[in-house]
Amino acid sequence: VCKPRMAEYKYILYERIDHTAVVRLNRPEKLNAMNLDVIAELSSVMDTISSDDSIKAVIITGVGEKAFCAGADIEYMSKINPLEAEQYAIKGHASMSKIENLNKPVIAAVNGYALGGGCELALASDIRIASKNAMLGQPEVNLGICPGWGGTQRLARIVGVAKAKELIFTGKRVSAEEALSIGLVNKVVELPKLMEEALAMANEIAKNSALAVRVSKMLINRGIESDINTGLGLEVWGWSLCFSHIDRTERMTRFLQKK
Ligand code: CAA
User: Fold this and answer.
1) Which of 16, 94, 112, 196 could be a cystine partner for 67, CB 3.0 to 4.6 Å?
2) How far apart are CA 39 and CA 50, in angstroms?
3) What digits encode the pLDDT tens for the residues 198-211?
4) How many angstroms separate the alpha carbon of residue 35 from the centre of ligand 1?
5) Can you list the alpha helix ranges (DSSP code H) found in the chain?
6) Ligand 1 center to residue 251 CA distance, Å?
7) How many angstroms separate the CA atoms of 37 and 92, rounded?
8) Model-level pTM?
9) Cβ of residue 71 lying under 6 Å from some atom of ligand 1
């Protein structure tokens, strides 16, 4: 069992629990809204996690019982010009894409409001587990802007075009149960059980071959953006690559020896 280690960030708590990295957005007084510093720290912690082979899964959640993340910082956005907005979007996108393309699976433990950029952070993660009190949505049009950190693209890919249009055009919030029914979240649990459930799933993943999980994530992400034959071609390469690792030899031998 690895001893939990903490690194110093202003807006993020980073902890190791066994083979899982737990990243908590820590700006509860602003419902974990992401200003430029939060985005930069999130990017930086993803780089640390990416280069650590002993980490097998990642959980992202929010500090407090009210919000996972209430989105981009409205106070900041109220003052910026289009060029500054472009930088905010580019940095937000870079951070979300880092999560989406991270070489380890990422679970969003959605512990309350996940709105706008907060919903987009959950969408960039591989799996979403929500607490019963969670509310998700893309309310940007209400503020005179469209979603800007991937919401128009990832939401449609996850819940389908029609549902994404309904959610984005109305800006309405959906409950955890409704989010489950449209495939926006994978699972709903009571708030006190959220981290336990997320860690249990992370541990289940961590028992498997890290390379095989990593290749699977890459193939699903690349494949969904490709035509079926390109995706299937990539799978042949990814599958064969797994045979280069000692993990495959050991795991198959173990299976055969058990018989
Ligand atoms: N940005 C900055 N501050 C925020 C914030 C945000 N997105 N969301 C909440 N806060 C702040 C509030 O201003 C308040 O601060 P003060 O105490 O200093 O006044 C504090 O967090 C607590 O919030 P509320 O008092 O509003 O709490 P509530 O319980 O009454 O309401 C809520 C909760 C429904 C989540 C409400 O805070 C809310 O609607 N927040 C905004 C959600 C939103 O519209 N998000 C999308 C942002 S746009 C975006 O994200 C663009 C993009 O795609 C990248």
Assistant:
1) 112
2) 16
3) 999 999 999 999 99
4) 12
5) 36-50, 74-77, 82-100, 117-124, 151-159, 161-170, 176-181, 194-206, 210-224, 228-242, 246-258
6) 48
7) 11
8) 0.96
9) yes
